[in-house]
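Request from the bench team (R.T.):
"We need a structural guess for the complex before ordering more 2-acetamido-2-deoxy-beta-D-glucopyranose. Sequence and SMILES attached. Just send the C-alpha coordinates back."

Command: build protein-2-acetamido-2-deoxy-beta-D-glucopyranose structure.
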Amino acid sequence: MIGRMRVNLRSAFFLLVLCTFLVCFAFWTRCTRDIKEGPSREGLVSSKSDFDGNLRFVNRGAQAYVQDFQVNQYREIECLINHEYTVPCRREDDEVYMPFSFIQKYFEVYGSIENMDGYDRFEFSHSFSKVFPPSDTYSPDGKFMSFEHYNVEVRDRVKCITATEGVPLSTQWNPEGHYYPIQIAQFALSHYSKYLSEGKPDVDILAHGSKEDVVDWSVPDDCEIRSVRDKIRGSNVLELSSPDSIRSQGISLKVTEDANFAFAVDLRFITNGSISVAVKLDDSTFHIHYIFSKVLISSEGKDIYYGMGETRGKWIHLARDLDKDFMKGLMQKFPKSKKTVKMNNIKILSITIRGRGWVDNITLASANHMDHFYDAANWLVNHQDTSSGGWPIMVARKLIPDIMELPPGWYSAMGQGQAMSVLVRAYLKSKNPRYLKAAVDGLRVFDVSSAQGGVKARFANTYDWYEEYPTTPSSFVLNGFIYSLLGLYDLKQVAEGTALTDVERIYNSGMKTLKALLLLFDSGTGTFYDLRHVILGIAPNRARWDYHTTHINQLLQLSIIDSDPIFTKTAARWMDYMKGKRAPHN
Ligand SMILES: *[C@@H]1O[C@H](CO)[C@@H](O)[C@H](O)[C@H]1NC(C)=O
Ligand SMILES: *[C@@H]1O[C@H](CO)[C@@H](O)[C@H](O)[C@H]1NC(C)=O
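Reply to R.T.: structure attached below.
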Protein backbone atom coordinates (compact mmCIF):
# COMPACT_ATOMS: atom_id res chain seq x y z
CA MET A 1 0.00 0.00 0.00
CA ILE A 2 2.73 2.39 0.91
CA GLY A 3 4.61 1.36 -2.18
CA ARG A 4 1.68 2.22 -4.37
CA MET A 5 1.43 5.59 -2.79
CA ARG A 6 4.79 6.64 -4.05
CA VAL A 7 3.51 6.31 -7.56
CA ASN A 8 0.06 7.77 -7.33
CA LEU A 9 -0.58 10.99 -5.56
CA ARG A 10 -4.33 10.75 -5.51
CA SER A 11 -4.47 7.37 -3.91
CA ALA A 12 -2.10 8.83 -1.35
CA PHE A 13 -4.65 11.44 -0.57
CA PHE A 14 -7.14 8.83 0.54
CA LEU A 15 -4.59 7.42 2.88
CA LEU A 16 -3.71 10.56 4.60
CA VAL A 17 -4.53 11.48 8.09
CA LEU A 18 -6.62 14.54 7.93
CA CYS A 19 -4.74 16.47 10.51
CA THR A 20 -1.35 17.04 11.98
CA PHE A 21 -0.26 14.99 14.94
CA LEU A 22 -1.06 17.73 17.42
CA VAL A 23 -4.79 17.71 16.79
CA CYS A 24 -5.40 14.30 15.39
CA PHE A 25 -6.44 12.46 18.53
CA ALA A 26 -9.22 14.89 19.29
CA PHE A 27 -10.28 14.96 15.69
CA TRP A 28 -10.53 11.22 15.34
CA THR A 29 -12.51 10.91 18.53
CA ARG A 30 -15.02 13.43 17.32
CA CYS A 31 -15.34 11.78 13.95
CA THR A 32 -16.08 8.40 15.44
CA ARG A 33 -18.60 9.92 17.84
CA ASP A 34 -20.26 11.55 14.92
CA ILE A 35 -20.70 8.27 13.19
CA LYS A 36 -21.78 6.35 16.29
CA GLU A 37 -24.17 8.92 17.70
CA GLY A 38 -25.75 10.15 14.52
CA PRO A 39 -25.00 13.14 12.35
CA SER A 40 -25.18 15.92 14.92
CA ARG A 41 -22.87 18.61 13.62
CA GLU A 42 -24.05 21.06 16.23
CA GLY A 43 -23.05 18.61 18.91
CA LEU A 44 -19.52 18.55 17.61
CA VAL A 45 -18.88 22.22 18.04
CA SER A 46 -21.09 23.26 20.90
CA SER A 47 -19.74 23.43 24.40
CA LYS A 48 -18.46 20.68 26.60
CA SER A 49 -21.63 19.40 28.24
CA ASP A 50 -23.22 18.27 25.04
CA PHE A 51 -22.42 14.60 24.99
CA ASP A 52 -25.50 13.32 26.85
CA GLY A 53 -24.10 14.65 30.09
CA ASN A 54 -21.17 12.35 29.54
CA LEU A 55 -18.70 14.16 31.74
CA ARG A 56 -16.20 11.39 31.33
CA PHE A 57 -15.75 12.60 27.77
CA VAL A 58 -15.26 16.19 28.80
CA ASN A 59 -12.92 15.66 31.69
CA ARG A 60 -10.83 12.72 30.77
CA GLY A 61 -7.18 13.23 30.19
CA ALA A 62 -4.82 12.07 27.50
CA GLN A 63 -5.05 8.50 28.79
CA ALA A 64 -8.71 8.28 27.86
CA TYR A 65 -8.05 9.54 24.36
CA VAL A 66 -5.49 6.83 23.89
CA GLN A 67 -8.02 4.26 25.05
CA ASP A 68 -10.65 5.46 22.65
CA PHE A 69 -8.11 5.47 19.95
CA GLN A 70 -7.29 1.84 20.55
CA VAL A 71 -10.92 0.81 20.83
CA ASN A 72 -11.35 2.20 17.36
CA GLN A 73 -8.61 -0.01 16.05
CA TYR A 74 -6.10 2.69 15.17
CA ARG A 75 -2.71 1.26 15.94
CA GLU A 76 0.75 2.51 15.37
CA ILE A 77 2.61 1.28 12.36
CA GLU A 78 5.98 2.27 11.07
CA CYS A 79 6.10 3.46 7.46
CA LEU A 80 9.36 2.88 5.66
CA ILE A 81 9.85 5.58 3.04
CA ASN A 82 11.72 4.54 -0.11
CA HIS A 83 13.75 2.12 2.01
CA GLU A 84 15.49 5.19 3.41
CA TYR A 85 13.81 6.39 6.60
CA THR A 86 10.69 5.80 8.66
CA VAL A 87 7.68 7.85 9.60
CA PRO A 88 5.25 6.90 12.40
CA CYS A 89 1.84 6.15 10.89
CA ARG A 90 -1.51 4.68 11.94
CA ARG A 91 -3.30 1.61 10.78
CA GLU A 92 -6.95 0.58 10.86
CA ASP A 93 -7.38 -2.94 9.49
CA ASP A 94 -6.01 -2.68 5.95
CA GLU A 95 -6.01 1.08 5.79
CA VAL A 96 -2.89 3.07 6.61
CA TYR A 97 -2.92 6.74 7.54
CA MET A 98 0.16 8.87 7.11
CA PRO A 99 0.61 12.18 8.92
CA PHE A 100 -0.32 15.10 6.78
CA SER A 101 2.79 16.99 7.88
CA PHE A 102 4.74 14.29 6.05
CA ILE A 103 2.45 14.20 3.00
CA GLN A 104 2.64 17.98 2.70
CA LYS A 105 6.41 18.12 2.45
CA TYR A 106 6.76 14.98 0.42
CA PHE A 107 4.27 15.94 -2.29
CA GLU A 108 4.44 19.77 -1.99
CA VAL A 109 0.70 19.96 -1.33
CA TYR A 110 -1.34 22.15 0.96
CA GLY A 111 -3.95 21.60 3.65
CA SER A 112 -5.38 23.08 6.77
CA ILE A 113 -8.26 22.57 9.17
CA GLU A 114 -10.91 25.18 8.43
CA ASN A 115 -14.11 25.94 10.23
CA MET A 116 -17.03 25.79 7.89
CA ASP A 117 -20.60 26.53 9.07
CA GLY A 118 -19.60 25.67 12.59
CA TYR A 119 -17.77 22.39 12.04
CA ASP A 120 -14.16 21.71 11.30
CA ARG A 121 -13.07 20.13 8.10
CA PHE A 122 -9.78 19.55 6.48
CA GLU A 123 -9.23 21.39 3.21
CA PHE A 124 -6.68 19.87 0.92
CA SER A 125 -5.34 21.52 -2.23
CA HIS A 126 -2.84 20.42 -4.74
CA SER A 127 -1.77 24.03 -5.42
CA PHE A 128 -2.47 27.39 -3.83
CA SER A 129 -2.86 30.19 -6.35
CA LYS A 130 -5.88 31.22 -8.31
CA VAL A 131 -6.58 31.61 -12.03
CA PHE A 132 -8.43 34.78 -12.92
CA PRO A 133 -9.94 34.35 -16.37
CA PRO A 134 -9.78 37.56 -18.43
CA SER A 135 -12.85 39.19 -19.98
CA ASP A 136 -14.14 37.78 -23.27
CA THR A 137 -12.99 40.77 -25.24
CA TYR A 138 -9.72 42.63 -25.24
CA SER A 139 -8.95 46.18 -26.18
CA PRO A 140 -5.75 48.19 -25.70
CA ASP A 141 -7.59 50.72 -23.54
CA GLY A 142 -9.33 48.05 -21.46
CA LYS A 143 -8.31 46.26 -18.29
CA PHE A 144 -4.90 44.63 -18.44
CA MET A 145 -5.34 40.86 -17.93
CA SER A 146 -6.75 40.59 -14.39
CA PHE A 147 -4.46 43.17 -12.86
CA GLU A 148 -7.30 44.69 -10.86
CA HIS A 149 -6.43 41.95 -8.35
CA TYR A 150 -2.83 43.19 -8.01
CA ASN A 151 -1.85 45.43 -5.10
CA VAL A 152 1.68 46.37 -6.07
CA GLU A 153 2.29 48.90 -3.29
CA VAL A 154 1.51 46.59 -0.40
CA ARG A 155 4.21 44.14 -1.45
CA ASP A 156 7.07 43.90 1.03
CA ARG A 157 9.58 44.68 -1.67
CA VAL A 158 8.01 48.10 -2.24
CA LYS A 159 9.67 50.51 0.18
CA CYS A 160 7.08 53.23 -0.45
CA ILE A 161 5.30 55.18 -3.14
CA THR A 162 7.54 58.22 -3.41
CA ALA A 163 6.00 61.66 -3.13
CA THR A 164 8.52 63.03 -5.64
CA GLU A 165 7.33 60.84 -8.49
CA GLY A 166 4.24 59.08 -7.18
CA VAL A 167 5.58 55.64 -8.12
CA PRO A 168 6.82 52.61 -6.15
CA LEU A 169 10.41 52.39 -4.98
CA SER A 170 11.58 48.79 -5.13
CA THR A 171 13.91 47.09 -2.68
CA GLN A 172 14.10 43.93 -4.77
CA TRP A 173 17.78 43.02 -5.41
CA ASN A 174 18.87 46.26 -3.72
CA PRO A 175 17.70 47.20 -0.23
CA GLU A 176 18.65 50.86 -0.81
CA GLY A 177 15.74 51.11 -3.21
CA HIS A 178 15.59 51.72 -6.95
CA TYR A 179 12.95 52.58 -9.50
CA TYR A 180 12.08 49.32 -11.23
CA PRO A 181 10.29 50.03 -14.52
CA ILE A 182 8.45 46.69 -14.46
CA GLN A 183 7.07 47.34 -10.99
CA ILE A 184 6.12 50.89 -11.97
CA ALA A 185 4.31 49.65 -15.08
CA GLN A 186 2.48 46.99 -13.05
CA PHE A 187 1.51 49.64 -10.49
CA ALA A 188 0.03 51.68 -13.36
CA LEU A 189 -1.78 48.72 -14.94
CA SER A 190 -3.24 47.57 -11.64
CA HIS A 191 -4.63 51.02 -10.82
CA TYR A 192 -5.93 51.43 -14.35
CA SER A 193 -7.65 48.04 -14.22
CA LYS A 194 -9.06 48.78 -10.75
CA TYR A 195 -10.42 52.07 -12.05
CA LEU A 196 -12.21 50.27 -14.88
CA SER A 197 -13.63 47.56 -12.67
CA GLU A 198 -14.58 49.72 -9.66
CA GLY A 199 -16.00 52.67 -11.56
CA LYS A 200 -15.82 56.28 -10.42
CA PRO A 201 -14.59 56.75 -6.83
CA ASP A 202 -16.54 58.45 -4.01
CA VAL A 203 -14.96 61.86 -3.61
CA ASP A 204 -15.37 64.14 -0.61
CA ILE A 205 -14.21 67.68 -1.47
CA LEU A 206 -12.75 69.25 1.66
CA ALA A 207 -11.81 72.56 0.05
CA HIS A 208 -11.87 73.91 -3.48
CA GLY A 209 -10.66 77.45 -3.03
CA SER A 210 -13.88 79.32 -2.44
CA LYS A 211 -14.56 81.90 0.29
CA GLU A 212 -16.92 79.50 2.07
CA ASP A 213 -14.06 77.04 2.51
CA VAL A 214 -12.03 79.53 4.54
CA VAL A 215 -14.33 79.47 7.57
CA ASP A 216 -13.79 75.76 8.19
CA TRP A 217 -10.08 76.15 8.99
CA SER A 218 -8.66 76.85 12.39
CA VAL A 219 -6.17 79.70 12.05
CA PRO A 220 -3.77 80.63 14.86
CA ASP A 221 -2.89 84.32 15.38
CA ASP A 222 0.35 84.25 13.41
CA CYS A 223 -1.34 82.67 10.36
CA GLU A 224 -3.67 83.74 7.56
CA ILE A 225 -5.88 82.08 4.97
CA ARG A 226 -8.02 83.64 2.24
CA SER A 227 -9.55 82.83 -1.10
CA VAL A 228 -7.83 84.44 -4.10
CA ARG A 229 -7.91 84.14 -7.86
CA ASP A 230 -4.93 82.21 -9.22
CA LYS A 231 -3.73 83.58 -12.56
CA ILE A 232 -1.85 80.46 -13.59
CA ARG A 233 -4.75 78.05 -13.06
CA GLY A 234 -7.52 80.56 -13.69
CA SER A 235 -9.53 79.48 -10.67
CA ASN A 236 -10.05 80.42 -7.04
CA VAL A 237 -7.55 78.91 -4.63
CA LEU A 238 -6.74 79.21 -0.93
CA GLU A 239 -3.79 81.45 -0.10
CA LEU A 240 -2.04 80.55 3.14
CA SER A 241 0.60 82.08 5.24
CA SER A 242 2.04 80.50 8.38
CA PRO A 243 5.47 79.81 9.91
CA ASP A 244 7.38 77.06 8.03
CA SER A 245 8.52 75.06 10.98
CA ILE A 246 6.99 71.65 11.41
CA ARG A 247 6.88 72.48 15.16
CA SER A 248 4.55 75.45 14.58
CA GLN A 249 0.82 75.03 14.95
CA GLY A 250 -0.09 75.65 11.31
CA ILE A 251 -3.47 76.16 9.69
CA SER A 252 -5.63 73.09 10.05
CA LEU A 253 -8.86 71.52 9.03
CA LYS A 254 -10.62 68.90 11.15
CA VAL A 255 -11.84 65.79 9.36
CA THR A 256 -13.29 62.49 10.49
CA GLU A 257 -12.67 59.83 7.95
CA ASP A 258 -12.26 56.13 8.56
CA ALA A 259 -12.81 54.62 5.12
CA ASN A 260 -11.76 56.90 2.28
CA PHE A 261 -8.01 57.25 2.51
CA ALA A 262 -7.19 58.46 -1.00
CA PHE A 263 -6.01 62.01 -0.42
CA ALA A 264 -5.31 64.55 -3.16
CA VAL A 265 -4.38 68.22 -3.21
CA ASP A 266 -3.09 70.81 -5.66
CA LEU A 267 -0.41 72.90 -4.00
CA ARG A 268 2.12 75.59 -4.75
CA PHE A 269 4.53 76.79 -2.07
CA ILE A 270 7.01 79.66 -2.08
CA THR A 271 8.60 78.88 1.28
CA ASN A 272 9.69 75.57 2.79
CA GLY A 273 6.18 74.51 3.71
CA SER A 274 4.55 71.19 4.37
CA ILE A 275 1.20 69.52 4.38
CA SER A 276 0.52 67.09 7.20
CA VAL A 277 -2.17 64.58 7.99
CA ALA A 278 -2.98 63.36 11.50
CA VAL A 279 -3.75 59.63 11.56
CA LYS A 280 -5.16 57.88 14.58
CA LEU A 281 -4.40 54.21 15.17
CA ASP A 282 -6.04 52.77 18.29
CA ASP A 283 -5.14 55.35 20.96
CA SER A 284 -2.10 56.86 19.28
CA THR A 285 -1.96 59.77 16.88
CA PHE A 286 0.67 59.77 14.17
CA HIS A 287 1.45 62.48 11.62
CA ILE A 288 2.35 62.00 7.99
CA HIS A 289 4.21 65.08 6.72
CA TYR A 290 4.69 65.78 3.03
CA ILE A 291 7.70 68.09 2.98
CA PHE A 292 10.01 69.75 0.49
CA SER A 293 12.96 67.43 0.75
CA LYS A 294 14.86 64.95 -1.39
CA VAL A 295 14.74 62.31 1.35
CA LEU A 296 12.05 59.98 0.05
CA ILE A 297 10.81 58.49 3.32
CA SER A 298 11.86 58.69 6.95
CA SER A 299 10.22 58.32 10.31
CA GLU A 300 10.93 59.58 13.78
CA GLY A 301 8.76 58.72 16.75
CA LYS A 302 5.20 59.17 15.58
CA ASP A 303 6.16 61.40 12.65
CA ILE A 304 6.44 59.97 9.14
CA TYR A 305 8.01 62.12 6.43
CA TYR A 306 7.64 61.87 2.66
CA GLY A 307 9.84 64.15 0.56
CA MET A 308 8.18 65.87 -2.41
CA GLY A 309 11.54 66.95 -3.84
CA GLU A 310 12.55 70.57 -3.78
CA THR A 311 10.36 72.04 -6.50
CA ARG A 312 8.79 75.04 -4.86
CA GLY A 313 7.08 77.79 -6.86
CA LYS A 314 5.20 75.39 -9.16
CA TRP A 315 1.79 73.81 -8.92
CA ILE A 316 2.04 70.17 -7.85
CA HIS A 317 -0.78 67.63 -7.88
CA LEU A 318 -0.15 65.35 -4.93
CA ALA A 319 -2.22 62.13 -4.74
CA ARG A 320 -1.57 59.81 -1.81
CA ASP A 321 -3.14 56.71 -0.34
CA LEU A 322 -2.84 57.66 3.32
CA ASP A 323 -3.34 54.16 4.67
CA LYS A 324 -0.50 52.82 2.50
CA ASP A 325 1.75 55.79 3.31
CA PHE A 326 1.07 55.20 6.98
CA MET A 327 1.81 51.49 6.73
CA LYS A 328 5.07 52.01 4.83
CA GLY A 329 6.03 54.65 7.39
CA LEU A 330 5.46 52.23 10.26
CA MET A 331 7.44 49.56 8.44
CA GLN A 332 10.44 51.88 8.42
CA LYS A 333 10.66 51.40 12.15
CA PHE A 334 8.88 48.11 12.68
CA PRO A 335 9.42 45.96 9.61
CA LYS A 336 6.84 43.44 10.79
CA SER A 337 4.05 45.94 11.45
CA LYS A 338 2.23 45.01 8.25
CA LYS A 339 1.24 41.73 9.82
CA THR A 340 0.16 43.14 13.15
CA VAL A 341 -1.54 46.46 12.40
CA LYS A 342 -5.14 46.34 11.22
CA MET A 343 -5.46 49.13 8.73
CA ASN A 344 -9.21 49.29 9.11
CA ASN A 345 -8.64 50.68 12.62
CA ILE A 346 -7.19 53.93 11.38
CA LYS A 347 -8.90 57.30 11.24
CA ILE A 348 -7.92 60.59 9.63
CA LEU A 349 -8.29 63.43 12.14
CA SER A 350 -7.00 66.58 10.48
CA ILE A 351 -5.01 68.19 7.70
CA THR A 352 -2.51 70.89 8.59
CA ILE A 353 -0.69 73.26 6.29
CA ARG A 354 2.47 75.17 7.18
CA GLY A 355 4.42 77.71 5.11
CA ARG A 356 3.48 80.29 2.51
CA GLY A 357 1.63 79.22 -0.61
CA TRP A 358 -1.62 78.20 -2.22
CA VAL A 359 -3.73 75.07 -2.17
CA ASP A 360 -6.79 73.89 -4.01
CA ASN A 361 -8.91 70.78 -4.57
CA ILE A 362 -8.27 69.07 -1.26
CA THR A 363 -10.12 65.77 -1.44
CA LEU A 364 -10.47 62.47 0.37
CA ALA A 365 -11.80 59.73 -1.87
CA SER A 366 -12.30 55.98 -2.04
CA ALA A 367 -9.49 55.77 -4.61
CA ASN A 368 -7.09 57.85 -6.72
CA HIS A 369 -6.49 55.18 -9.35
CA MET A 370 -6.15 57.44 -12.36
CA ASP A 371 -3.78 59.80 -10.54
CA HIS A 372 -1.50 56.87 -9.78
CA PHE A 373 -1.82 55.61 -13.33
CA TYR A 374 -0.76 58.95 -14.81
CA ASP A 375 2.05 59.39 -12.26
CA ALA A 376 3.47 56.10 -13.50
CA ALA A 377 2.86 56.86 -17.19
CA ASN A 378 4.62 60.21 -16.72
CA TRP A 379 7.49 58.52 -14.95
CA LEU A 380 7.92 56.25 -17.98
CA VAL A 381 7.94 59.23 -20.34
CA ASN A 382 10.41 61.15 -18.17
CA HIS A 383 12.85 58.30 -17.51
CA GLN A 384 13.16 56.69 -20.91
CA ASP A 385 16.68 56.65 -22.31
CA THR A 386 16.15 58.85 -25.37
CA SER A 387 18.98 57.35 -27.40
CA SER A 388 17.95 53.70 -27.05
CA GLY A 389 14.26 53.99 -26.20
CA GLY A 390 14.87 51.68 -23.22
CA TRP A 391 13.95 51.94 -19.56
CA PRO A 392 17.20 51.02 -17.83
CA ILE A 393 17.11 48.86 -14.69
CA MET A 394 19.73 50.15 -12.32
CA VAL A 395 20.44 47.07 -10.23
CA ALA A 396 22.60 44.04 -10.93
CA ARG A 397 20.57 40.92 -11.60
CA LYS A 398 22.03 37.52 -10.87
CA LEU A 399 19.76 34.94 -12.42
CA ILE A 400 22.44 32.30 -11.88
CA PRO A 401 25.52 33.71 -10.11
CA ASP A 402 28.58 33.89 -12.39
CA ILE A 403 26.69 32.28 -15.28
CA MET A 404 23.64 34.41 -16.02
CA GLU A 405 24.29 37.88 -14.64
CA LEU A 406 23.40 41.38 -15.74
CA PRO A 407 25.27 44.48 -14.55
CA PRO A 408 23.15 47.58 -13.69
CA GLY A 409 21.68 49.45 -16.65
CA TRP A 410 20.09 46.49 -18.46
CA TYR A 411 16.83 46.59 -20.37
CA SER A 412 14.06 44.04 -20.05
CA ALA A 413 11.69 43.03 -22.83
CA MET A 414 9.10 42.66 -20.10
CA GLY A 415 9.78 46.20 -18.91
CA GLN A 416 9.54 47.51 -22.47
CA GLY A 417 6.33 45.60 -23.15
CA GLN A 418 4.58 46.46 -19.90
CA ALA A 419 5.56 50.11 -20.37
CA MET A 420 3.96 49.97 -23.83
CA SER A 421 0.75 48.59 -22.33
CA VAL A 422 0.71 51.54 -19.90
CA LEU A 423 1.63 54.18 -22.46
CA VAL A 424 -0.88 53.00 -25.06
CA ARG A 425 -3.63 53.23 -22.44
CA ALA A 426 -2.44 56.68 -21.33
CA TYR A 427 -2.44 57.79 -24.97
CA LEU A 428 -5.91 56.45 -25.69
CA LYS A 429 -7.36 57.99 -22.52
CA SER A 430 -5.63 61.39 -22.72
CA LYS A 431 -5.00 61.69 -26.48
CA ASN A 432 -1.62 63.13 -25.56
CA PRO A 433 0.79 62.02 -28.32
CA ARG A 434 3.86 62.05 -26.07
CA TYR A 435 2.68 58.77 -24.54
CA LEU A 436 2.39 57.15 -27.96
CA LYS A 437 5.80 58.46 -28.97
CA ALA A 438 7.41 56.94 -25.87
CA ALA A 439 5.73 53.59 -26.60
CA VAL A 440 6.95 53.64 -30.21
CA ASP A 441 10.48 54.60 -29.11
CA GLY A 442 10.40 51.63 -26.75
CA LEU A 443 10.31 49.30 -29.78
CA ARG A 444 13.90 49.87 -30.82
CA VAL A 445 15.35 47.75 -28.03
CA PHE A 446 13.55 44.70 -29.48
CA ASP A 447 15.76 44.78 -32.56
CA VAL A 448 19.00 44.81 -30.58
CA SER A 449 20.47 41.50 -29.45
CA SER A 450 21.01 40.75 -25.78
CA ALA A 451 24.76 40.67 -26.34
CA GLN A 452 24.59 44.22 -27.75
CA GLY A 453 22.60 45.58 -24.79
CA GLY A 454 19.14 44.90 -26.24
CA VAL A 455 16.62 42.17 -25.44
CA LYS A 456 16.58 39.93 -28.51
CA ALA A 457 17.69 36.33 -28.16
CA ARG A 458 17.61 33.50 -30.70
CA PHE A 459 16.54 29.97 -29.94
CA ALA A 460 18.34 27.29 -31.95
CA ASN A 461 19.44 30.05 -34.30
CA THR A 462 15.92 30.07 -35.70
CA TYR A 463 13.43 31.75 -33.41
CA ASP A 464 13.45 35.36 -32.10
CA TRP A 465 12.77 35.58 -28.39
CA TYR A 466 12.46 38.72 -26.26
CA GLU A 467 14.20 38.34 -22.94
CA GLU A 468 12.94 39.43 -19.54
CA TYR A 469 16.55 39.02 -18.38
CA PRO A 470 18.77 39.40 -21.48
CA THR A 471 21.65 37.33 -20.19
CA THR A 472 24.28 35.68 -22.37
CA PRO A 473 23.73 32.75 -22.58
CA SER A 474 19.98 33.31 -22.92
CA SER A 475 17.55 32.27 -20.22
CA PHE A 476 14.19 32.24 -22.09
CA VAL A 477 11.93 33.23 -19.20
CA LEU A 478 8.40 32.48 -20.38
CA ASN A 479 6.20 34.92 -18.44
CA GLY A 480 8.36 37.94 -19.27
CA PHE A 481 8.34 37.02 -22.95
CA ILE A 482 4.54 36.82 -23.00
CA TYR A 483 4.19 40.16 -21.20
CA SER A 484 6.41 41.71 -23.87
CA LEU A 485 4.15 40.25 -26.59
CA LEU A 486 1.05 41.69 -24.91
CA GLY A 487 2.69 45.13 -24.89
CA LEU A 488 3.60 44.78 -28.56
CA TYR A 489 0.03 43.76 -29.30
CA ASP A 490 -1.31 46.88 -27.55
CA LEU A 491 1.03 49.10 -29.54
CA LYS A 492 0.14 47.33 -32.79
CA GLN A 493 -3.51 48.37 -32.27
CA VAL A 494 -2.68 52.09 -32.29
CA ALA A 495 0.61 52.54 -34.19
CA GLU A 496 0.72 53.99 -37.69
CA GLY A 497 3.17 54.21 -40.59
CA THR A 498 6.64 52.75 -40.11
CA ALA A 499 5.97 52.22 -36.40
CA LEU A 500 3.09 49.93 -37.37
CA THR A 501 5.27 48.02 -39.84
CA ASP A 502 7.95 47.59 -37.19
CA VAL A 503 5.68 46.51 -34.38
CA GLU A 504 3.84 44.03 -36.62
CA ARG A 505 7.10 42.46 -37.70
CA ILE A 506 8.40 42.20 -34.12
CA TYR A 507 5.09 40.94 -32.75
CA ASN A 508 4.49 38.36 -35.49
CA SER A 509 7.94 36.94 -35.19
CA GLY A 510 7.55 36.68 -31.39
CA MET A 511 4.18 34.94 -31.68
CA LYS A 512 5.61 32.46 -34.17
CA THR A 513 8.32 31.64 -31.62
CA LEU A 514 5.87 31.34 -28.76
CA LYS A 515 3.68 28.86 -30.63
CA ALA A 516 6.70 26.80 -31.65
CA LEU A 517 8.36 26.69 -28.22
CA LEU A 518 5.47 26.93 -25.74
CA LEU A 519 5.33 23.22 -25.01
CA LEU A 520 9.01 23.10 -24.12
CA PHE A 521 7.80 24.67 -20.88
CA ASP A 522 5.28 21.88 -20.16
CA SER A 523 6.66 19.38 -17.66
CA GLY A 524 3.60 17.11 -17.70
CA THR A 525 2.77 18.07 -14.10
CA GLY A 526 3.49 21.80 -14.16
CA THR A 527 5.56 24.30 -16.10
CA PHE A 528 9.13 25.49 -16.28
CA TYR A 529 9.94 29.10 -15.50
CA ASP A 530 12.74 29.28 -18.06
CA LEU A 531 14.85 27.05 -20.28
CA ARG A 532 18.05 26.98 -18.24
CA HIS A 533 17.98 23.17 -18.34
CA VAL A 534 18.09 23.18 -22.13
CA ILE A 535 20.63 25.99 -22.41
CA LEU A 536 23.03 25.07 -19.61
CA GLY A 537 22.39 21.33 -19.22
CA ILE A 538 21.47 21.81 -15.56
CA ALA A 539 18.39 20.93 -13.48
CA PRO A 540 15.22 22.59 -14.74
CA ASN A 541 13.76 25.56 -12.88
CA ARG A 542 10.19 24.51 -12.12
CA ALA A 543 7.71 27.40 -12.04
CA ARG A 544 6.27 27.72 -8.54
CA TRP A 545 2.48 27.72 -8.44
CA ASP A 546 2.02 31.47 -8.68
CA TYR A 547 4.21 31.63 -11.77
CA HIS A 548 2.44 28.59 -13.19
CA THR A 549 -0.81 30.51 -12.65
CA THR A 550 0.66 33.55 -14.36
CA HIS A 551 1.48 31.34 -17.35
CA ILE A 552 -2.15 30.18 -17.45
CA ASN A 553 -3.58 33.69 -17.06
CA GLN A 554 -1.34 34.79 -19.91
CA LEU A 555 -2.41 31.96 -22.22
CA LEU A 556 -6.06 32.71 -21.48
CA GLN A 557 -5.43 36.34 -22.38
CA LEU A 558 -3.60 35.34 -25.58
CA SER A 559 -6.50 33.07 -26.53
CA ILE A 560 -8.72 36.17 -26.68
CA ILE A 561 -6.44 37.94 -29.16
CA ASP A 562 -5.23 34.93 -31.18
CA SER A 563 -7.49 32.06 -32.17
CA ASP A 564 -4.75 29.42 -32.39
CA PRO A 565 -6.12 26.49 -30.31
CA ILE A 566 -2.70 25.94 -28.73
CA PHE A 567 -3.50 28.63 -26.18
CA THR A 568 -6.87 27.34 -24.97
CA LYS A 569 -5.83 23.69 -25.07
CA THR A 570 -2.59 24.28 -23.23
CA ALA A 571 -4.22 26.54 -20.65
CA ALA A 572 -6.84 23.87 -19.92
CA ARG A 573 -4.19 21.20 -19.39
CA TRP A 574 -2.09 23.51 -17.20
CA MET A 575 -5.16 24.26 -15.09
CA ASP A 576 -5.65 20.52 -14.60
CA TYR A 577 -2.09 20.28 -13.26
CA MET A 578 -3.15 22.64 -10.48
CA LYS A 579 -5.63 20.01 -9.32
CA GLY A 580 -3.14 17.19 -9.44
CA LYS A 581 -4.01 15.82 -12.86
CA ARG A 582 -1.03 14.86 -14.94
CA ALA A 583 -0.26 14.38 -18.58
CA PRO A 584 -0.67 10.70 -19.63
CA HIS A 585 2.37 8.50 -19.46
CA ASN A 586 3.53 5.59 -21.61
C1 LIG B 1 12.23 72.05 4.87
O1 LIG B 1 11.54 71.55 6.00
C2 LIG B 1 11.70 70.17 6.28
C3 LIG B 1 10.80 69.80 7.43
O2 LIG B 1 10.82 70.72 8.45
C4 LIG B 1 13.15 69.87 6.55
O3 LIG B 1 13.34 68.51 6.75
C5 LIG B 1 13.98 70.34 5.35
O4 LIG B 1 15.34 70.14 5.61
C6 LIG B 1 13.72 71.81 5.07
N1 LIG B 1 14.43 72.18 3.85
C7 LIG B 1 15.09 73.33 3.75
C8 LIG B 1 15.74 73.58 2.43
O5 LIG B 1 15.17 74.12 4.66
C1 LIG C 1 -8.77 72.17 -9.22
O1 LIG C 1 -9.56 71.28 -10.00
C2 LIG C 1 -10.19 71.89 -11.11
C3 LIG C 1 -11.10 70.85 -11.74
O2 LIG C 1 -10.39 69.70 -12.03
C4 LIG C 1 -9.14 72.42 -12.08
O3 LIG C 1 -9.73 73.03 -13.18
C5 LIG C 1 -8.25 73.41 -11.32
O4 LIG C 1 -7.22 73.86 -12.15
C6 LIG C 1 -7.67 72.74 -10.08
N1 LIG C 1 -6.91 73.73 -9.34
C7 LIG C 1 -5.59 73.78 -9.37
C8 LIG C 1 -4.97 74.88 -8.59
O5 LIG C 1 -4.91 72.98 -9.99
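Two things stood out. The CA atoms of residues 93 and 145 lie 52 Å apart. Residues 230, 233, 235, 237, 266, 315, 360-361 surround 2-acetamido-2-deoxy-beta-D-glucopyranose (ligand 2) (CB under 6 Å).
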